[in-house]
Amino acid sequence: MAQDASKASRTEAGRKILTSDEMRRALRRVSHEILERNGGASLVLVGMHTRGVPLAERLARAMGEIEGETVPVGAVDIGLYRDDLVGGSRPFMQPTDLPDIEGRTVVLVDDVLYTGRSIRAAMDALNDFGRPKQIQLAVLVDRGHRELPIRADYVGKNVPTSRNEEVDVHLVEIDGTDEVVLGRRNDA
């Protein structure tokens, strides 16, 4: 949570790019796309801490309503796999809790896709828990500026940004409201 507070202090108030209703519709559309591509709900959703976890749970609920099947959901922490830790800094760790992923299709879920480094770290973490048959990626917002050759299979909204902008996703489960805001970084 301290990381979230410092992030908010670095960003000026911006414009809302997704409302609660638009988020709901985007997640519903993404859940249909996942089911269509995979021929049903025989897969595992894994949310990346922090906001990817409730997004994965929302996708699983929507998929369950559509298919009438329960979709397993897990959570992965990438703190130990990040390549951007400097000095002796230690990451804030959250629990990794995964269903069996061995030989299964895993849909990794995150809120914002930016450089791709967090996704690479998440894939490294997943491989320590088993060898999935396939890993797919679902994100609420793709903002561009990739540093690694990673792309999302499912995107709620593509938002072209500049490097001095910040995309802030707020979720009811964590922040008390559903919205996505595009703001300008104060330290840029």
CATH topology: Rossmann fold
Spatial sequence of strands, sheet with the most strands? 3-2-4-5-6
For the record, the count of structural domains works out to: 1
Strand content: 25-35%
Helix-strand category? alpha/beta
Mean pLDDT across all amino acids: 91
Helix proportion? 25-40%
The major sheet is characterized as:
5 strands, parallel
What are the secondary-structure elements, in order, as H or E? HEHEHEEHEEEHE
Judging by the overall fold, what is the CATH architecture? 3-Layer(aba) Sandwich
Show unreliable segments. Answer: 1-11
Shape type = globular
What top-tier CATH class fits best?
Answer: Alpha Beta
Radius of gyration: 16 Å
Question: Cα distance, first to last residue?
Answer: 22 Å
- Seen as an oligomer or otherwise, the chain set is single chain
Question: Helical region count?
Answer: 5
Please tally the β strands and state the result: 8
